[in-house]
Amino acid sequence: MVAGTTTPNRTVTYQHFGGSSCLRGELNHHGLMAETGNRTFTRQDVEFDSHGTACAAWLYRPNGVVGPPIIVMAHGFASIRVLRLDAYAERFAQAGYAVLVFDYRSFGDSAGEPRRILDIGAQHEDWRAAIAYARTLEGVDTERVVAWGTSFGGGHVLHLAAEDHTVAAVIAQVPHISGPATTFALPLRLVVRLVAAGIRDQLGALLGREPYRLPAVGVPGSVAMMTSPDAEPMVRRLAGDRVEELMSELDVAARIALRVPLYSPGRRAKHITAPTLVQIAKRDVVTPYKVALKAAHRIPRGEIRTYDCTHFEPYLDPWFDTVVGNQLEFLTAHVPADTLDD
């Protein structure tokens, strides 16, 4: 059950009092065939080229829908698609949308060496390549491509939507907005240690050495990119029964610590022309709430939803149903998937 209040500035705030969700599915020789509610869908492993490197992706196709819109999805900071992006994609496919979910180069199942180098410009290139690939697919409405990003990926889709006015809609879940705001939200001692690590890694790269890596998440007081109290416990929950395997992959070349403070996609908000849903966590210490809210209000066709939760809670119960439900409401209003093949 969720209580919500609407204000004249297009902001809706949610407070959660409980709830749960479930999905059912089975494997077959075509890939994943799943049933949620009354609609089935298939999932295939595909790949596309991004500047000479193969990006791995899942392609979801809803059964019984003619020319569905396609949603292109990718994760956040140093994260990979197996950390619950399939849960969102399944809901979208159930509702009649095709979905392309990809890993950035050098992350997850995508190719690229050295591994886990977070290059902001390169990830923008991966987004452009993914959208271009989606527009080549048969059986989908290539004129209605939706960009969906979360956390750092949410910042990416805002950045790209400000320059690509052909996207049909944008969903930015707890998006990265401001490099300075994110940096200054960290303890000063941690900032100093991250900068030192970044300089060490960058100098090593110039000398041809292997990357010096930092954990993407850690407990408060540790040297990691995100050390809020909820960061490591919630990411462990996202990893589920693969926690030991996946946590070992959740590190990143430390040079990114020198670049995050300079990356502020929220500055381009006023140039976004597509309908844009921005979902903001009120207790977010990774992406400060007030900064995100101010930027979201500058998007001409922006719709804002706020939630009384932390940065990592939207991915999991009890918040997941509410957050993805709002995304589906937004999609139905702006990019409906309502043509059934009877």
Provide a concise account of the structure shown.
The chain has 342 residues and is α/β, with parallel strands linked by helices. It has one domain: Alpha/Beta hydrolase fold, catalytic domain (Rossmann fold), CATH 3.40.50.1820.
Report on the structure:
28% of the residues lie in helices and 24% in strands. With 342 residues, it is an alpha/beta fold. The chain has a single domain, classed as Alpha/Beta hydrolase fold, catalytic domain (Rossmann fold). The strands form 2 sheets. The chain has a 12-stranded mixed beta sheet, with helices on both faces. A two-stranded antiparallel sheet has the order 11-12. It is globular and about 55 Å long. The model is unreliable at 1-9 and 16-31 (pLDDT under 50).
